[in-house]
Amino acid sequence: MLRNILEVLMESTPREIDATRLEKGLCGMDEVVAVHELHIWAITVGKVLLACHVKIKRDADADMVLDKVIEYIRREYNISHVTIQIERE
């Protein structure tokens, strides 16, 4: 319990989330070119937030990609507080 409290206070990435795997999963989407500024942290035990920039192909539908990215993060990592900034190539 003390470890969980310290992780929240230090705003570290929760141990159960593999940020590298998450980033690779996003980059594996057809329309996604790159992911950067990926930040994952817990504000309380069990409440995780994620923010990142997602670079997409010039001709991609930004709204569709945003929906796919958010759905992937929610489904695979159970993170419901997500902020994504879409950038074009």
Automatic annotation (TrEMBL):
Q: Which domain of life is it from?
A: Eukaryota
Any idea where the Cation efflux protein cytoplasmic domain is? 14-88
What are the record keywords, sorted?
Ion transport, Transport, Zinc, Zinc transport
Q: Name one GO cellular component term.
A: vacuole
Select a single GO molecular function from the record's annotations and give it: zinc ion transmembrane transporter activity
- For the keyword Electron transport, the answer is no
Q: Which residues cross the membrane?
A: none
Return the similarity comment.
Belongs to the cation diffusion facilitator (CDF) transporter (TC 2.A.4) family. SLC30A subfamily.
According to UniProt, the name of this protein is: Cation efflux protein cytoplasmic domain-containing protein
Q: What organism is recorded for this protein?
A: Punica granatum
